[in-house]
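Hi U.,

Before I forget, here's the chain from the pilot set. I'm dumping it here mostly so it's searchable later in email.
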Amino acid sequence: MLLRIMVFVGTLIFVLGLYLLVKNYKNGKYIKGYGLLTYAGVAMVLLGVILLMEPVFTSLPGNLPKTVPLVIAICTCIIASKLLLEPTFLKNKIKRGVFIKNCTQCNKVFSFHNRLKVLINGYLKCSHCNAIYEPKHNVDRGIYFGIIFIANIIVFNHIIILNNFMLQIKWQTLMIMITYPLFDLLPHRWQRYERIS
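Structure:
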């Protein structure tokens, strides 16, 4: 009964947030608070539905009862966050920073060494014209970090099972330290930078 109430309340929150989001979008505005409200509704409905479907998941073979709900939750949250927290259909109306492969001032390609300095300095600096770009902490960055963290847990709990707990923690920490910086080191279209000088 409690789970059904959760799904019902979550649906009401989702509908209310979506209505306010669309209403403001028609006026050319995006209010992130309404996006968060809608996202909270989606999360409540998702959690309630997954818990209600527990008998279906427990009947699956092997490790699927644990991994299927997690995969469904991750995929749904990724899609919902892209649509509600950083909508691409509003990209002309919201200042989001720009994808950077070359310097916007002198058109010099950023080298691996330039990108490596981002991890130390916290900003991207052109070695030719000294223009400075600051990384934007957008939803894509958060999604990447979340996926890496969850994938790390799944790998070391279901695929690579170590009997020594401390050894497992050390391997997980090492994998996180290697994979987290790749978001800034490798150029890709999800990176967003804003020129500050």
